[in-house]
Amino acid sequence: MTLITKATRSFLLACIAALAVGGVSCFWFLHQIMDSEASDQLLHEKEQVEAYVNEIGFLPKRWFSISDSLWAVRTHPPVPIVMSDTVLFSTVQQEYLAYRQLSFGIATLNGYYQVNIRKALYETQGLKQALLWAFSGLTILLVGLLFFINYRLSRSLWKPFYRTLDTLQTFQLAQKEPLKFRRTSITEFQTLQANLQKLTNQLRQDYQSLKTFTENASHELQTPLAVIASNLEMLIQAPNLTDEQLERIGNLIEAVGNLSKMNHSLLLLTKIENGQFTDATDIAFSTLLSEKIDLWQPLIQDKSLQLRTQITPNVHLQMNAFLVDVLLNNLLGNALKHNQPNGSITIELTKTTLTISNTGPQPSIPVDQLWERFSKGSSRSDSVGLGLALVKQIADTYHFPISYHFQDGWHRVQISFNIS
Amino acid sequence: MKILIIEDETSLAQPLREYLTGEGHVCEWVATFQAAEEKIGVYEYDCVLVDIMLPGGSGLDLVDSLKKMQPHAGIIIISAKNALDDKILGLELGADDYLTKPFHLSELNARIKSIQRRRQFAGNREIKFGDIRIVPDSKEVWVNDSEIVLTRKEYDLLMYLVANANRVLSKGSISEHLYGDEIDQANSFDFLYSHMKNLRKKLSEQGCPDYIQTVYGVGYKFAA
Predict the structure, then answer these.
(1) Left (φ > 0), alpha (ψ -120 to 50) or beta: where does A325 sit?
(2) What is the pTM of this model?
(3) Residue A65: per-residue pLDDT
């Protein structure tokens, strides 16, 4: 729920509650006034009748015939004053109508009478109804107007905030330029922007220096590695080395080889992160994949692995040629390296996904750590654990979702091509 | 060949020089930009190895002036930077090859041999080793007058072995030559065993003596 929706909703609820309470009490108050007014009128008429009788001594004759609202019945005293409400069927309007009736006794010169005055309440009811409608209309209008004003006001008030949010959402650690927030006149938002600016700048700088450090360190490592490698290579040319000495030097050479491969991968990771492989070309992915499989074929046969492929032809992707190469080499290489004797490999390419599955022992680390650098699912010393990190980095570069599953002895890596 | 090594790291230049001298080349070595400029201005070389980051200037400038003064000299850039831009620029300036540190001496040697071959005139382009005769232009391999058919990788492997004949080659050096940096060591070693096995088989089927010696714990040695 957005801030504005939430604020507007609360506002609307408060409005409705206030108006409901106000409306009901208003109506009740009105009702009370009209009710007592009706009674007052009846009592007033009673006084008039009494005044007439007092003066003339008789009840006015004509009244009885003109209206059925006022009539007198001859009776015996005493007659109590009774005010009562009643409902009667009106032949004129063909419906039941509410009346208020006042009965009282009065002594005239020709006897004791019970005088009844009846007054229709429907007039006041009509008035109440009209008032109710007017009130409701006014209420709706008022709420609507307030709602509109509040909504517009909130929107314009929060607009800088939302703009700031939008700008913040575009932030990437690797971006070269600082974030540019649109200026706002509201102090709170200015503070927010200033702090965000500071924070993101700090993040960018830290990230940048970390990257520079990695890159420099990797570069600086190259020369000493070259020195070690070359000197070791010279060393093994020496005559009269014993087998033991040769093996020791062999181990060293292998370790230096691993080290320089690791260094190479780290540099590559940094370069991909730096976006140094942005040039994308149209890659005939199906063809390339088949070529790669052909390349690995001797090794697959050598290890007596069962290979099953299902490659949809004519899958094309816009990618950097070098990165595709690294991606496929690492995926296929992993499927071979972490396999088992007489195991299997399944490669499946559809228009939207590449799935590479292979048999092999269960990874010894949690699945979600597999993509991290230097995390190894096996204890092989010849694996440095950068292969999957590279795969992940490349997939991330192209916003390709990538997933790994281990089930029933099968490792399954799937990449979805986000073709948009 | 007469080779000039321009490299500021003494402990790297030393084995480089030794290895290449061992291959029968005449090697000179300088460590700074100025010294290199002086040498280039005075002497002629068949091949120059240039490091890009030198005290006193960029190796790329040396490549540029070398190409102007000695257009026939083969140039190999050795750099700690595996930057594509440097590589392209270097090759555009006229360098024949680009090697990224750390590299194997045997790899450098193979590249120098390939430059040497390219510089030789037509007609004398065959390589002979014992019973093996290789025609690089057509990539044909003959053993005792019968041609043997090798896969691309097997051919590359044989070429590499022949170029570094009588040297102990580490497994890493050979597999990196064949597969570069992009395949990790475990897989490329497996590849190497497989190729080596096939190559041996194909050669011996034609009655070729087994020149491939396994050096325990290290790698191989190709020797008659």
Answers:
(1) alpha
(2) 0.67
(3) 45
SS (H, E, C) B162-178: HHCCCCEEEHHHHHHHH
- Is the per-residue pLDDT at A125 higher than 80? no
Phi, psi of A274 (to 5 degrees): -75, -5
To the question of domain B127-222 being in CATH 3.90.1150.10, the answer is: no
| Domain residue extents for chain B | 2-119, 127-222
What would the two tokens of residue A124 be?
């006041």
Helix axes B105-119, B171-179, angle to 10 degrees: 50
Residue B11 belongs to what H/E stretch?
A: helix B10-22
Residues B62, B79: Cα–Cα separation, whole Å: 14
The answer to whether the Cα torsion of A139, A142, A147, A150 is positive or negative is negative
Of the partner residues A233, A243, A299, the one whose CB lies closest to the CB of residue B170: A233
8 Å CB contact of B186 and A380? yes
Residue written as tokens 């088949």?
A290
- Answer whether B135 touches A (CB < 8 Å): no
CB of A326 less than 8 A from some CB of B: yes
CATH (one of 3.30.365.10, 3.60.150.10, 3.40.50.2300, 1.25.40.890) for B2-119: 3.40.50.2300
Kindly state the average pLDDT of the residues B157-167. Answer: 92
Note the pLDDT of residue A383.
Answer: 64
**CA closest to B181 among chain A residues:** A261
- Beta strand pairing status for B219-222 and B140-143? unpaired
> What is the distance of C-alpha B193 from the center of its chain?
21
> How far lies A254's CA from each of A138, A144, A228, B5, in Å?
88, 79, 11, 27
What are the backbone dihedrals phi and psi of residue B10, each rounded to the nearest 5 degrees, phi first?
A: -55, -45
What is the tens place of the pLDDT at every residue in B112-133? 988 888 877 654 678 889 899 9
Residue type, A161: F
